[in-house]
From TrEMBL:
PANTHER family named among the record's database cross-references: BCDNA.GH08860, TREHALOSE-6-PHOSPHATE SYNTHASE
Top-level taxon in the UniProt lineage: Bacteria
Protein name (database record): Trehalose-6-phosphate synthase
Organism this protein belongs to: Streptomyces tropicalis
Signal peptide per UniProt: none
Family assignment from sequence similarity: Belongs to the glycosyltransferase 20 family.
């Protein structure tokens, strides 16, 4: 099946670098996505002949996948010249695999999100969805097998595609297969909530790879512990750690464009000025409205700060952006409503005619996020569990005045930033309120010094290097300098 004209490098991920929108007149409009993987892959450039295989996520993507099926590639003008193959897996199978298994089961297991007295329930409905997850993984494995040149390097991404390495290994024993997890990995007792055969299938699927990558040593060790207990070890598979850093060059350039300047002016209006006429201190958080991001406890900690330290009233504002995510899942919609409810309650309780304590926005706007980063005095990143968390790295890089970072010890970023952040237990609302106070009262020179070191750590492994290091390791080459 190996094609002599196949690609030497392939990437596979659920979400690709482009998404489509279908207009009423039937025309398709493409939008290029951001994020570490997109910039990482752009490092090898369109000329390298790499192919990126991704799924069609919605109706418009499926329409695009069908229209361009004959070419097996999306048009180059939509992808910045990258070769992208978008797979139409069928709306129902996709829904069951993505929402029903990847986001409701595997994401929940790795982030330990179940309310265990009632969840999870692995019944016949789960088995039906699991069959879709298998079919969806098989579609990827088959597409990759068709596209790969003899001996090619294939890098598979994340929990959506855990079965792909094993399936691809069966179809194409000649290729080198890597898999990278962008999430935490569950502790073994928690992981073993999965039905035994499913737990084993996930691990054996991943062990089909030559090399597995994780964001921190902690997640890599948790995976290894699961294998020791369930499959009797890693077999021949190697495990490595690559802590994805922020793309500082891109961010700095993007954050100094006019649209960001305009949003900074608008945000300053919303934040307002302190009674003495000076600017209000600004605590910033930016997240997907994601259960694991712990937005509600973050708001409760801010409320407690206002309660315990009335001197901050009128002198501080909490800019909280909680962007829509996975809204097909009821539990995410409910969480969004809870975030809005708690923010409104704080504004009602403490707000004054000239002061809105929580400036909450729930509509996605990248330029406005960058504007908030630049204005931040304090960044609040308090997830209950997070693979890495790039916001913790991005805000220190962009904050104009140098920010303090309040950081959960359960974020992967803690391994790299822990020394210069104010570290919190994410469940401890009182402790988080205390850390916010400490961050707001940190002497300027100390904040500047810490922020400088945070920035250095945050940029240590930019996406390009992160991606190329994985490729080198997969090919047994020495890492790029
Ligand atoms: C996490 C996952 C990614 C995913 C992203 C956004 O960072 O590791 O694989 O793409 O969340 O989630 P979504 O479901 O919108 O793709």
């Amino acid at each position: 099946m190996a094609s002599t004209h196949g690609a030497e490098v392939l990437v596979a991920s659920n979400r690709g670098p482009v998404s489509y929108e279908l207009r009423e007149d039937g025309s398709l409009h493409s939008r290029r996505g951001g994020g570490g993987l997109v910039s990482g892959l752009s490092a090898i450039g369109p000329d390298a002949g790499a192919v990126w295989v991704c799924a069609a996520l919605g109706d418009a993507d499926r329409e695009a996948a069908r229209r361009f099926e004959g070419d097996r590639r999306l048009p180059a003008d939509a992808t910045g010249g990258q070769q992208v193959r978008m797979l139409d897996i069928g709306a129902e199978v996709f829904h069951d695999a993505y929402n029903g298994i990847a986001n409701s089961v595997l994401w929940f297991v790795h982030h330990m999100l179940y309310q265990t007295p009632l969840e999870p329930v692995f019944d016949a409905e789960f088995r039906r969805r699991w069959a879709s997850y298998e079919a969806y993984n098989r579609a990827f494995a088959q597409a990759l097998a068709e596209e790969a040149a003899e001996g090619a390097a294939v890098v598979v991404q994340d929990y959506h595609l855990t079965l792909v390495p094993g399936m691809l290994r069966d179809l194409r024993p000649d290729v080198r297969i890597g898999h990278f997890s962008h999430t935490p990995w569950a502790p073994v007792d928690y992981f073993r909530m999965l039905p035994d055969d499913v737990a084993e299938q996930v691990l054996r699927g991943m062990l089909g790879a030559d090399r597995l990558g994780f964001l921190t040593r902690r997640w890599a060790d948790a995976f290894t512990a699961c294998c020791e207990e369930v499959t009797g070890g890693l077999g021949g598979t190697r495990v490595g750690v690559h802590g994805l850093g922020a793309d500082a060059d891109f961010l700095r350039e993007r954050a100094h464009r006019d649209d960001v300047g305009e949003r900074m002016a608008a945000l300053r209006e919303e934040i307002g000025t302190a009674p003495d006429g000076g600017p209000r201190r600004t605590i910033v958080r930016v997240d997907r409205t994601e259960l694991s991001k712990n937005i509600v406890r973050g708001l409760l900690a801010y409320r407690q700060l206002l309660e315990d330290h009335p001197e901050w009233r009128e002198r501080v504002a909490h800019v909280a952006f909680a962007y829509p995510s996975r809204q097909d899942l009821a539990v995410y919609r409910d969480y969004t409503a809870e975030v809005e409810r708690v923010a409104a309650e704080i504004n009602e309780r403490y707000g004054t005619p000239g002061w809105t304590p929580v400036v909450l926005h729930v509509r996605d706007d990248f330029a406005r996020s960058l504007a908030a980063y630049r204005l931040a005095d304090v960044a609040l990143v308090n997830p209950i569990r997070d693979g890495m968390n790039l916001v913790a790295k991005e805000v220190p890089i962009l904050s104009d005045g140098g920010c303090a970072l309040v950081l959960s010890r359960e974020a992967g970023a803690y391994a790299e930033l822990g020394e210069d952040a104010l570290v919190v237990n994410p469940y401890d609302v009182t402790g988080t309120a205390r850390a916010l106070h400490e961050a707001l009262t940190m002497p300027d020179h100390e904040r500047a010094e810490r922020c400088k070191r945070l920035t250095a750590a945050a940029t240590a492994l930019p996406p390009t290097r992160w991606f190329l290091d994985q490729l080198s390791a997969l090919r047994d080459e020495p890492a790029a300098g």
